[in-house]
Structures are given as structure tokens and as C-alpha cells.
Amino acid sequence: MQQPQEVAVSTTPKAHGKAVSVICLLVAMSSLQGGAALAKGLFAGIGAEGVTALRIGFSAIFLCLIFRPWRMPLNQIVWRPIFIYGVALGSMNLAFYMALRTIPLGPAVAIEFTGPLAVAIFYSRRLSDAGWLGLAVFGLYLLLPFGQISGGMDTTGVLLALFAGACWAVYIVVGKKAGDANGRMSVPLGALVAAMFIFPIGLIHAGTALFSLSILPVALLVALFSSTLPYSFEMIALTRLPSKTFSTLMSLEPALGAVSGYLFLKEGLTLSQGIAVLCIIVSSIGITGFSKNDPQVSA
């Protein structure tokens, strides 16, 4: 008679830990999308290029203070994957922010999400994923500027979001190689490469406005909400959640982007745009959530 009670007691901490991890991941995604909405508010002052430069610059500083990459001897660093990783990171952020100039946050996140979706499908060995791919393609089709089907979505914005997604795919693939070669130091080193690549672009575009005292505090918040906080909370969730659960929950990011766009930027979606975002979310859940492998990521 005591065994069921013992089981209930022993599983309660695990259930509680999983619930906390889910909350951490939702906070991370909400923080990321809130940061994007905050960043869009700075475009009028320093442009998407300037915002990207400050976000990546501050993020690189934060990450270097956390990881202290100077402790790693230079002759032990494998620079090739770090360089590609950093360029992909910088290009992804710049293209995404430039896309936000002309298209709403929710659809932009959904289009960019096709990058990791493509990586998952490429490495998949299941025939059923072809159906999920078709659903994602249909969602993407609804967002493309064919006549009025997309509700007037800007062609340049859509293409920039697609390019950001392609950079995200490269970031995922090369990031693993950089991590295998350099360990955790690949994160701050990649951010430094991205900053050295992007900051001059932002400086050329925005000039001295980049250092305005009315801009810097908000840009600091953008870096915190878009990089430091999401990374910290995602690491907590990643070490406690099964990888399939983690990936499935991450699929909700386009929906959170749409909610953030509506709440903070007053960006409503047309019916076709809403259906498109939903198609991409369901496709991502289908690919990650129905995978046979469900390894537990341990700390």
C-alpha cells in the first residue's frame, strides 16, 4: 500500500522541475520577441543597421564577461568555424532587423524559422516529414507577395527574412562544429567576430547617433532581452527538458512573435498571414514532436 505513495512523492520534484523548465523556456522566447519589438522602436533613430550593431556589440561584451574567453590560449582556438559562425550570426541578425522595417514581427519570425526547419528536414530520415515540409511551404507561399494573398507583404522584407533563415541554418550547422572544436568559448568568440563584422556597418549608417545617450540605454535593454536573458533561461531549460520537448516548445516562437508584434507594435495580422504563421508552427511541431528519438539532455 505504501508503494504508490512513494512513487507519487518521488516524481513530484521531477514534475515540478519540468514545469519550471517549461516556464524558463517560455520566458526566454518571450524575452527574445519582446527584445525584437523594442529594437524596432529604435529604427527611426539609428536604422536597423545601427540597432544590430549595438545589440551585437553589447551582447559580445556580456558574453565575454560571462565566459572570459581570454583564458583560452590563442594557439588552441580553431578559428575557421568560429569565423563562419560569427559571420552567420551577424548576418542573421542584420537581415532579420532589416526585414522588420517593412513586414510585421510575427510573419518575419515565421519566415526566418524556415531555416532551422530546413536543417531538421535535411537530417530527417522519415518519409512523413515530406508532408510537414509541404505544410511549411504552403505557409510560406501565403506570406509571399503574390497579388493580395499575403495582405500586401513587402517583397524585400520577405526575402530578407528568408535570408535570415538561411543564415540561421548555417549558424546551426557550423555552430555545432565550432562548439566541438572550441567548447563553450565558441559563443563569445563568435559574438566578437559578429561584432567586428557588423559594428562598422552600423557606424557607417548611423554615424554619431549610434552613441546618443537617448539610444544607448534602450539598446542595452535590447541586448539583454534579445541575447543575455534568453540564452540564460534556455540553458536552464535545455539541461532539464527532453530534447524533443524543448524543440517542440521552441516551435511556438512565431506565435510569440505575432503576440509581441500585436501587443507592443500594434501589428495585426490578416487572415492569410495568421494561417501562414500557424502552418509553419504546426509543421515545426510535426517534425520535432513526432520524432522517434527523445534523448534526455543532461546537465
UniProtKB/TrEMBL annotation:
InterPro entries, per database record: AA-Vitamin_Transporters (IPR050638), EamA_dom (IPR000620), EmrE-like (IPR037185)
Coarse class of the protein's main subcellular location: membrane
Pfam family, one: EamA
GO terms for cellular component: membrane
Segments forming domain EamA: 156-288
Keyword vocabulary terms for this entry: Membrane, Transmembrane, Transmembrane helix
Protein location: Membrane
Keyword Cell membrane tagged: no
Topology with respect to the bilayer: Multi-pass membrane protein
TM segment ranges: 20-46, 52-70, 82-99, 105-123, 130-149, 155-174, 186-204, 210-233, 245-265, 271-290
Keyword Heme assigned: no
Cited PANTHER family: EAMA DOMAIN-CONTAINING PROTEIN, INNER MEMBRANE TRANSPORTER
Family statement drawn from the similarity comment of this UniProt entry: Belongs to the EamA transporter family.
Protein name: Inner membrane transporter RhtA
Organism field: Glaciimonas immobilis
